[in-house]
Amino acid sequence: VPNLVETLKVEGMSCGHCVAAVEKAVKDLSGINMVNVDLTAKTVTVDFDNQVVNLENIKEAIEDQGYDVL
Ligand SMILES: [Cu+2]
To answer: What CA–CA distance (Å, rounded) separates 46 from 17?
Structure first.
C-alpha cells in the first residue's frame, strides 16, 4: 500500500493564515490525499501516496512558506 500518514512537527505557525498557507502549499503537491494542520499542537499530518510524493517534498513545501520543520 503506497499510502503513508506522517505527522510533522512545524515551528512558526501562529494564526489561521499560517494554517491556510501550509495547507495550500502541501495540497498543491501531487499525491496528497489529506492534510491537517493542528495549530495548538504545532503539527501537520499528511496522508500521501508515497509513489508520487515523498516526505522530503512535503517538508520543502512547508519550509518554502517560511516555517521550520523539526
Ligand atoms: Cu499566521
So the answer is: 18
